[in-house]
Amino acid sequence: MPACLYVQEEDRLRASPFHLPVLISFPVALASATMLPFPNISEALGRNLTAAETVWFRYSAGMHDFWLYAHNIVFLLLVYTLAPLPVALAELSRPKAIHRYKIQPKIQVPVADVLRCYRNVVKTFVFAVGPLQLLSFPAIKWVGIRTGLPLPSAWEVAAQLGVYFVVEDYFNYWLHRALHCRWAYEHVHRVHHEFTAPVGFAAPYAHWTEVLILGLPAFIGPAIAPGHILTLWLWFVLRHIEAIETHCGYDFPRTPTKYIPFYGGAEYHDYHHYVGGKSHSNFASVFTYCDYIYGTDKGYRYHKAQPVKLREQNDADEQYGEMTNMSGKRD
Q1: 3-state class of 318 per DSSP?
Q2: 3-state secondary structure 224-255
Q3: Higher pLDDT, 41 or 326
Q4: In Å, how far are 59, 176, 225, 237, 259 from 211, measured between CA atoms?
Q5: Which residues make Cβ contacts (< 8 Å) with residue 274, sequence separation at least 6?
Q6: In angstroms, how far is CA 199 from the centroid of its own chain?
Q7: What are phi and psi for residue 290, nearest 5 degrees?
Q8: Which N-terminal residues, if any, form the signal peptide (predicted)?
């Protein structure tokens, strides 16, 4: 008799987000197994496994979904530690080489402040973000985030990530804008604006309440268009890298994100920190369309127009001076 393939029956977990084994003992409880009449997993899929699927199957087959989902907090800590390092090290070792790209060149954030920022963010991740993510596991199962085979195609991943970015950006815009009301700013959002010239490590630096509030929109997209847990991992990693990039304090000319339509970038968000608590501009987290539609980018556009007006005035003065000199010679 051929060996039969045992697969995890996820439908029972998805049927009720309040499944007791999940809520009470999900690190230990295993979903019940169903026997499928296939001699191997390739016949179950109707094709051979790809190299990526083979690696994923070997890694995840014996691991409960809860532990797979718990990878998120590890990825966040790794990305937060490593992603800001290149710019930070370049700023320390060769400041002149990148000084011309610094958005606020007159402000230098002390290393002690950066280390304090790092410690505070790690504490927030461990004691606030981590528990929230673990407690949200039943909801992740309920909306239909899957962990098995087949793996999603590149087009599926790209489409879902596009939805996640647009949806998160829209809801984040309104929550961020609400945090700039007088009471919310003084009691919560003021912490994030301690860095008037932001650095990469300060991207998630905020009051723990704000971290949780602004973290909620990141789950709306996956709830609308649920996909594979690998897509969910990639979504959180990319969103975290994007936040670090927009807070890095440098506007490098050839970053890949400059080719993304309506993308804000470091200069766009840096203006928001530069203005500080009085800011009523540039609330968007990723794209600029919300600020444009609702008129909250007028201050930024005026600010950007000033150097252009000054250059135009200088050019006009120079032309007038040349004409004056020429007329003087003719006279």
Answers
A1: helix
A2: HCCCEHHHHHHHHHHHHHHHHHHCCCECCCCC
A3: 41
A4: 31, 11, 23, 16, 29
A5: 104, 196, 197
A6: 15
A7: -65, -45
A8: none
3-class secondary structure, 6: strand
Q: Looking at residue 304, what is its pLDDT?
A: 84
Residue type, position 79, single letter: V
Mean pLDDT of the chain: 83
Return the closest-CA partner of residue 121 out of 61, 206, 195: 206
* DSSP class of 33: E
d(CA 317, CA 165): 46
Nearest-angstrom CA–CA distance, 239 and 219:
12
Q: Looking up tokens 């991740």, which residue turns up?
A: 125
Per-residue confidence (pLDDT) for residue 236, from 0 to 100: 96
- Of residues 129 and 39, more confidently modeled: 129
What angle (nearest 5°) sits at the alpha carbon of residue 200, between those of residues 195 and 203? 65
Question: Is 0.85 topped by the overall pTM?
Answer: no
DSSP 162-225: HHHHHHHHHHHHHHHHHTTSHHHHHHTGGGGGG-SS--GGGTT-S-HHHHHHHHTHHHHHHHHS
Containing 274, the helix (H) or strand (E) segment is helix 265-275
**Region 137-164 average pLDDT:** 95
Backbone angles phi, psi at 303, to 5 degrees: -60, -45
Could you say which DSSP state residue 127 is in? Answer: I
Centroid of chain to Cα 237: 7
Residue 189, number of CB atoms within 10 A of its CB: 22
Element (H, E) at 89: helix 85-93
